Amino acid sequence: MSGQDRLFIVTDEQISPARASTGRALIWAPALLLVIVALIQTLGRNGLMPEIADSWRPTLYAWAFFCTCYCAAQVVRDGEQGKRRLFVVPATLFVVSMVFFPLVFGLTIAFSDWNLSSVDGQKFNGLDNIREMWGDPFYWNALGNMVLYTLAILVEYAIALGLALLLNSQIRARKFFRVAFLLPLMLSPVAVSWMVGKSLFESRFGPIARVIRWFTGESPSFYGDPETAMLMIMMMDAWTFIPFMMIMLLAGLQAIPRDIVEASRMDGATPWQTFKEVTFPLMLPVSITAIMIRIIFKLKLADIVINITSGGPGGATDTVTSFIFREYRDRSNVGYGTMLAMVYLVFIVIGFTIFIKVAARWMKPRY
Amino acid sequence: MTDSSQIFHDHAVDGTHKMRWYASRIAVYGILIGWAFICLFPIYWTFTTSFKLAPDVMQGNMVPFVDFTPNWRGWHSLGLSPEALGQESTVRAEFLKRFWNSVIAASCSSLLAVVLGSLAAYGLSRFEYRFGFMRNDDISFFFLSQLILPPVVLALPFLVLYREVDLLDTRIGLILLYALTVLPIVIWIMRDQFASIPTELEEAALVDGLSVWGAFLTIVLPIALPGMVAAFILSLVLTWNEYFFAALLTSTDAVTLPVMVASQTGSQGINWWSMAALSTAAILPLIVIGIVLERYIIKGMAAGAVK
């Protein structure tokens, strides 16, 4: 096993039986404590014992204590191997406790009717949520919108690639342009939705409206009809995230060896041919990565929508996230919202698997 | 160009070349300046609007000192104008509280993510692990796959869980959640960083009697520090701007700046100047970071892109 390690270490470490059993005790004693605390709290919740606290905090502390001891026990019990494992164990425990538990817990919520503001608490209702989802036109509309939003990435990619090519060419003041182009990425979507969405594009006093009125003589409405509203949201989202793709593509461009490009020029390729036959194919892996990360960020799109249109007009700009957000805000129905989110996750996982498979086939060298 | 006193002069073909070169230069700089304008104008607009009064906004005055006289009204409503700074101000205390919440949540979660992520990335780049059926690639995938997990999936379960363990509306709850969201990105960046550091360095250190952790802390960490700074800054940007979780999980005590900005936009009064001031204050720290530490941000984003 250790023969495959990139960092090869030889030790003559002997772990004494006493040390090994201490290590084991260091795992099992906190585990036992955790179980006892959890048990006492569960009993307390069900009225079989006096409650020791009004929240599950003690159990949480016991869990944290167990995690700490588990990390320490790695070294005590396994010595050198444990020291190596100690690099990965904290992050793994962190992710497991922060993702695994909520997901499992989320599954139980998803199959229940649970209104947080009512006193009834959780009521399991089987497949009712799925049935409700099936007949919910707004959810499917939101999913459809997500497809459109995701398709807009192609346009963003084209712009980002163009900008990256320009930044990579022989220009002056490159640093200024790079910083200027990067700045929109620094801004919070919420601030952007006010700065751009609500003030620049304000239909009475906003400068853009003023310009349009000056040209056409009529007052524009940016969020009135579905198409324009969606286009506006796409544009604002693109504005903040084009720098992201641009920087990644720029890094890819700079990694292309100069001599390849020069050789193609020597062979008489026009700039367009050089781009099409040399640069673009070489950029394909970076492009796929950039687009993939961009899709990931796009699927989270909500802040701008929530703050500017809150899904309107008539659900035209709704994203899945903003829809669920409103679903919770308006009806505080946790169960239904969680079910929608879980279904969304399933769609995403399926979509990504297909995307990665296709991309892998596409990226394979053709020669 | 074709002066008769000149013996050697450019051929006509070269002349067209030059023309074309100039034309392409003009086009290139035109596009660059145009896009820079698109990027910078909203920021400029917000910044100047924070010094405007209602008439200035309605008349669409753009250039300070020429079109309109700058005024501290917007900043005064935040308690941040020069004359308000001397006095007690509840608005300012409110704003500073939120600002401070944002600072703590963003920096602590980034720090936590960088520490956990760097350790994991280092381990994965140096050793072969086997946890049950999980090998190194599986563990990497396990971490990176968290990226595609949309926040909504976790949001409502966390809402309920946090209510149970009494972490709703606390900074520590936000910190933990934010650290989770940026952890995959940190691991992604740091894995690349550590892979580019030759193992011979650690081997030498081990021969000299350092332990694995000693070698990591004293030899590898200083070399990987720029990468860690890059990962930290990138996490900082993402967590500072995070709105969705903060809007769901905080209500009074732990409210962050984006939530504050969003709650102000809800009431569409025509108090543009105070909104502009608030927005400016919310984006200013990151703009400064963006300008000063641009190198690191680019490095961080480029790290994963190029293998």
Secondary-structure topology with pairs:
The complex is a heterodimer of chains A (367) and B (307).
Chain A: H1 17-45, H2 57-78, H3 80-110, E1 112-113, E2 123-124, H4 128-134, H5 137-168, H6 174-186, H7 189-200, H8 207-216, H9 226-255, H10 258-266, H11 271-299, H12 303-308, H13 320-331, H14 334-363
Antiparallel strand pairs in A: 1-2
Chain B: H1 12-49, H2 54-59, H3 73-76, H4 82-85, H5 90-126, H6 136-144, H7 151-164, H8 171-195, H9 200-207, H10 212-240, H11 244-249, H12 257-266, H13 272-292, H14 294-305
Helix pairs in contact in B: 1-13, 5-8, 5-10, 8-10, 8-14, 9-10, 10-14, 12-13
How much is the radius of gyration of chain B in Å? Answer: 26 Å
Low-confidence spans of chain B: none
Approximate strand percentage of chain A: under 5%
What is the overall shape of chain B? Answer: flat
- What separation lies between the terminal Cα atoms of chain A? 37 Å
Instruction: Provide the CATH superfamily of the largest domain in chain B.
Output: MetI-like
Strand content of chain B: under 5%
Q: How do the helices and strands follow one another from N- to C-terminus of chain B?
A: HHHHHHHHHHHHHH
- Helix tally of chain A? 14
> CATH fold name of the largest domain in chain A, please?
MetI-like fold
| Record field, number of beta strands of chain B | 0
Average pLDDT value of chain A?
85
In the sheet with the most strands of chain A, the strands line up as 1-2
State the low-pLDDT regions of chain A, or none: none
What is the oligomeric state here? heterodimer
Please supply descriptive tags for the structure shown above.
heterodimer; A: 367 residues; mainly alpha; MetI-like fold; two-stranded antiparallel ribbon; 14 helices; 74% helix; B: 307 residues; 2 domains; 73% helix
Task: Give a verbal description of the structure.
- The complex is a heterodimer of chains A (367) and B (307).
- Chain A has helices spanning 17-45, 57-78, 80-110, 128-134, 137-168, 174-186, 189-200, 207-216, 226-255, 258-266, 271-299, 303-308, 320-331, 334-363, and strands spanning 112-113, 123-124.
- Chain A is an all-alpha fold and 367 residues long.
- A two-stranded antiparallel ribbon of chain A has the order 1-2.
- In chain A, α4 packs across α14 and α9 (226-255) packs across α11 (271-299).
- Chain A is flat and about 80 Å long.
- Chain A starts with 16 loop residues before the first helix and ends with a helix.
- Chain B is flat.
- In chain B, α1 (12-49) crosses α13, α5 (90-126) packs across α10 and α12 (257-266) runs antiparallel to α13.
